[in-house]
Amino acid sequence: MTIQVNPAVLIWARETAGFALDEAASKLFKDGVKATAAENLAAMEEGEKQPTRTQLAKFAKLYKRPLLAFYMAEPPRTGQRGQDFRQTPDDRTKRENAMLDALLRDVKARQEAVRDLLLDDEDFWEHKFVGSMTIDTPVTTVASSLSMALGFEHRDKSLRRGEPDKLFRTLRAAAEDIGIFVLLLSDLGSYHSTIPSSVFRGFAIADEIAPFVVINAKEAKTSRSFTLMHELAHIWLGATGVSGQAYTGNPSNQAAKIEQFCNDVAGEFLLPTEYFKADAVEFDPDDTDAAEKIIDAISYSWSVSGPMVAYKLYRMGDLTSNAYSTLRNVYHARWQAALSAQKSKQKDGEGPSRNVVLAHNLGDALLGIVSRSVRTNALTYTKAARLLGSKANSVETLVRSYEAKMNKSDLFNGAS
């Protein structure tokens, strides 16, 4: 039985998923005696043929759209999901941008569901820090505001003991404690849909009820603190949107000015200018070898990444643009090598289980509200699975794991 579908909706679904006609057809159909796969799909998109319900289900799965979307009378207008703050040259493929768009839709749907749950809670409160600053506010003032809100003295180097990932976990927990949901996401549910950090580093939803920060899970662990603080700066500005790699050019529009401002805030928070300069020695701004040694020393002392220190030195005029670009390429190559090594370990079966990784990526704030809502019957397991991006039969495992972690933490705090 065929289904009456507007051909324009089929075209819209394919194009917004980033597929060329031939590419989509090869995944949906097989070449037949009477028509090729591409001819079959073209006939449907031209209204000459109608798809069956089974075929529509395949469309929905491939294009990452709900089945009901194909029953719309007309294609919808492009949704407003925030500003695109990415300033690096647009060498991203149409497919990569389409996958990012699908991820943004998914996270926005989760955020709205969390918002509804919070509004039903009598104890909810609006977060006054959202939109509390502007780009005319001094960078140091915003950094100090973040420091006070998070309860983390950013100028105290004694708090920076350990690896950069330890600092990220500390800052993430502090952000979640004040009501900000911090997730690590990089795909649409499988490695086939992985979105590299070159496409996006993070994005923020600056909502006064349920502020969300998403960091690309493929981002180097050493760089996550910078991305987190950058996105928190977006929250403080009330600027919802997606961010990319740091840009060295002069800002030519408002989005570029906001992006540079957020980079500077993150840099000031993680490396307070008047304090970290005490660790530095003078060197030729074009001498990348000398710079790298100094960068290594500073990054170790402050538990931040080399690229972060290099960016700070560049913004302060201690590194030339060419030297900074060279060092960025060096650090990027190292990260790619580390990623390859990590993939090899995963192929060999090493590493934590999928649920352990998922729980870490979702964060305690999201797991916490799901746990409370499931236990009070405010949320079904099916809806909880959508919020967590998991299967319904995994919800109980994830919730119990979170609850055990919290109970252990409570026991530890009580003993101390």
TrEMBL record:
Residues 201-313 form the IrrE N-terminal-like domain. Pfam families: Peptidase_M78. PANTHER family: ANTITOXIN HIGA1, BLL0069 PROTEIN. This is ImmA/IrrE family metallo-endopeptidase. It comes from Roseovarius bejariae. The lineage of its organism: Bacteria, Pseudomonadati, Pseudomonadota, Alphaproteobacteria, Rhodobacterales.
